[in-house]
Amino acid sequence: MSLIEPRTLKGFRDYLPEAMIPRERLIDTARRVYRSYGFVPIDTPALEYEEILAGKGGTESDKQMYRFEDHGGRRVALRFDLTVPLARFVAMYSNELGLPFKRYHIASVWRGENTQRGRYREFMQCDFDTIGSENLTSDIETALVIHDLFKALGLEATIHVNNRRLLNGVLARLELDGKSAGVLRALDKLEKVGPEKVTEELQTQAGATPAQVREILALAAVTGTNDEILRQLEPLVASSELGRDGLAQLRELIGAVRAVGVDEQRVRIDVSIARGLDYYTGTVFETSLDALPSIGSVCSGGRYDNLAQLYTKERLPGIGASLGLDRLLAAMEELGLVEKRRTGASTLLVHFDEARRTDYLRLAARLRAAGVGVEFYPEPKKLGNQLKYADRRGFRFAIVAGDNEWKSGRCQVKTLATGATIDAPMFDAAGAAHPELVALLA
Amino acid sequence: MSLIEPRTLKGFRDYLPEAMIPRERLIDTARRVYRSYGFVPIDTPALEYEEILAGKGGTESDKQMYRFEDHGGRRVALRFDLTVPLARFVAMYSNELGLPFKRYHIASVWRGENTQRGRYREFMQCDFDTIGSENLTSDIETALVIHDLFKALGLEATIHVNNRRLLNGVLARLELDGKSAGVLRALDKLEKVGPEKVTEELQTQAGATPAQVREILALAAVTGTNDEILRQLEPLVASSELGRDGLAQLRELIGAVRAVGVDEQRVRIDVSIARGLDYYTGTVFETSLDALPSIGSVCSGGRYDNLAQLYTKERLPGIGASLGLDRLLAAMEELGLVEKRRTGASTLLVHFDEARRTDYLRLAARLRAAGVGVEFYPEPKKLGNQLKYADRRGFRFAIVAGDNEWKSGRCQVKTLATGATIDAPMFDAAGAAHPELVALLA
Q1: Domain assignments of chain A as residue spans, ordered by start
Q2: Are the beta carbons of B137 and A312 separated by less than 8 Å?
């Protein structure tokens, strides 16, 4: 029989244990933090009606969608984000769920985009949203969630916050509010291409006059400490109610985060953040890693006025953010923060003597009952081979017990990083793992 | 604008929080148990080359596969199980992984099958396998993992164990070994259709003589305690080396499990278990819930000789099992074992006075730092509305603090199930959550 060449599709990848273990740790941490604020998990199908996912269509993600006809002749597609399914979900169940509804959703999405370094066609999103309240409390809380998340991960991150009302207010006053999408697209490039190119784009694409361009760029150029920025913004938005309102929200958010005791460095006003989509209407966030800002935002989001208008007449405002799990993992790897472990247990129990198999199994079971993760090597092989296996996998300890040890009731505990060996009693009088042994393996 | 009707595809479902919370708990427990034995997580793409997933084709799952052409004109398909991807994965990375390789994989799979009660087109599998050892240690350990898993879930389950060598040995002696697939198919129906129908099928489909049918059915009819079954099997398999070997393995497995201290009731020899697929070659498992055996096996698997023969010449023997997560959840729901909580936090902090927002936020932050999950209601609403929200969501406690409380520094803690209210100080001298308050919310 000829063999089938084992391979994966371009843009897709396997997660080997050394990548999957830190990924699971990240997900666990995110869930713990989300839950501590009262967010609850949901899940939705990977496959949905094409019509539902395509929405009004015409977007970039729309073109990248994997779509086909199923066995029943239905046009179906794989979800390309978790926001559209959330909108459909909340439209279907809003009565049952009750508002406000705070959910997190951690799941894979698929986009048939051109593959680049670090861009995949399948990746995991890790979103949290508060639906059904327009109160600024949820905006403040979103910043606190992001803060707690990175703190729990042991990463120094800066949350860049802006409020779209500032820009929208100025645009309204300049009678450019119909052009906000084009303005946002141009402003998003500011850091990359510089003010001259953006000026050109604002004039040609958004039809702004030179005076208007000056006002728009002045807004995006304000820098300094949070207090300095708030002061400088005041005259720039003074003539627009919407702009003043955005400034008041920004001021209140910064004040609240400070009052809770978050380090001033961690949450910074950054008026250069536009967040492309027209969809956002208030507070917007991006998050950079202090040690690796070049990797871009690892957690972004913002407030929107109406989540599910394609599916329901009920107006559903909300705010949320999405943790870029894969980008964050790539960054942590680059920063050397990912432990190279390839085992789920701390301890390898060496298999010396098959006649003692049940004794080994009993020892392993008692240690697990005491909270120690133990892998028992499945067959008797040379000690050297088994220790090499333990080293490669990254076990912290190996327990060695041959005939002499079983007769004396004491085993050898080897710390693999140092090679140091200590002997310890295996069982206590009641037949449980001996506390001395458990302490050595803690 | 006309609305798009929000709906899911037939055979697919949304997981609302009350279903998703216990599902996450199940997954967490499974991972904890798998890891404690040294299993490590992997993940593989949902989409693969159709050729890889179809393998040699012609199976039932093959027909049910979702398949289509991607943007690049490749024939692709959604995985229908986690075993084929595992085979492809191990064939690709066996050098890098090193053997033995113990992995778990918890992920969704898709099958376009006819929908029935409790059968979905998207469901989650939760597999663990040990690849690269033929030693019985791994068989014993697989039984112990299943045992620990159900114990950790607080469920009384019985692991039914058999060994395919018993039947294969007898079939070889009867010169029916070429017909084992047909024999297995017939035997799998024994409980459902009774011995007469099975006799008929064995004669017509597998071409067995009446004498042969008697021998086969005699093997499948042995019952009693583990020791009784082992004794009764002895003469039935005596004339076959393979059969004697299977019996010895079964005896050793039962002995080892007993020696480790597992209750004899939990692991039972059941010679009626055939496990349809030709694929299994040694130990096979099924697991039933003592309180709801009718739901069928909730954790099944077995030993195989060669996992990845379609993709590599390297022979990769192994053993594994798959936890039927969705079936188990359905069973737990039927048994009333699923808590109806719809919150990730234990405590709702009532929002009374917007002017105190930062104080509330600080209290919530301090309680979270002390390990208490706290949701802060986003806007000031009537107390009754917020308590109703807390009740519906299943919060255990509500903290009520109005102006008087903030002035006195003490809040009201309401236990929602009883309505009892106790007052407690909010902060300690250092500004942390007061230990008295934390203790009340534990």
Answers
A1: 17-334, 347-440
A2: no
Closest Cα partner for B64 from B73, B74, B77? B77
A425 token code pair: 């009693």
A94 touches chain B (CB under 8 A): no
Q: Which residues pair with B410 in a beta bridge?
A: B425
Q: Which residues of A touch B137 (CB under 8 A)?
A: 351, 357, 361, 376, 378-379
Sequence-ordered alpha helix ranges (H) in A37-106: 50-54, 60-64, 83-97
Question: Best residue in A4, A141, A151, A366 to probe B by mutation, most B CBs within 10 Å?
Answer: A4
Is A260's Cβ below 8 Å from some Cβ in B? yes
Longest dimension (CA), chain B: 91
Q: In chain A, which residue's Cα lies nearest the Cα of B91?
A: A6
Architecture of domain A17-334: 2-Layer Sandwich (3.30)
Asked if A16 has any chain B CB less than 8 Å from its own CB, the reply is: yes
Q: Which fold has domain B17-44+85-334?
A: BirA Bifunctional Protein; domain 2 (3.30.930)
Which letter does DSSP use for residue A350 in this model? -
Distances (CA, A) of B136 to B35, B39, B128, B175: 20, 17, 16, 27
β-strands B374-376, B318-323: how paired? unpaired
Q: Which CATH superfamily is domain B347-440 in?
A: Anticodon-binding domain (3.40.50.800)
Which amino acid belongs to residue A226? N
The residue among B83, B109, B44, B94 whose CA lies nearest residue A20 is B44
The tokens describing B74, both together, are 């490749």
Partner-chain residue, chosen from B9, B37, B68, that has the shortest CB–CB distance to A49: B9
Partner residue facing B40 (CB), from A78, A342, A362: A342
Residues A240-284 pLDDT 10s = 999 999 999 999 999 999 999 999 899 999 998 877 667 899 999
Q: What is the pTM of this model?
A: 0.94
**Over the stretch A181-199, which tens digit does the pLDDT of each residue have?**
888 888 888 888 888 998 9
Using DSSP's 3-state secondary structure scheme, residue A426 falls into coil
Q: Which of B108-117, B180-189, B312-321 has the highest mean pLDDT?
A: B312-321
pLDDT at res. B155: 95
Answer yes or no: do A378 and B92 touch at CB < 8 A.
no
The whole-chain average pLDDT of chain A stands at: 93
Lowest pLDDT segment from A50-54, A281-285, A361-365, B203-207: B203-207
| Euclidean distance between CA atoms B273 and A40, whole angstroms | 40
pLDDT for B378 beyond 80: yes
Chain A CB contacts of B66 below 8 Å: 47, 68, 70-71
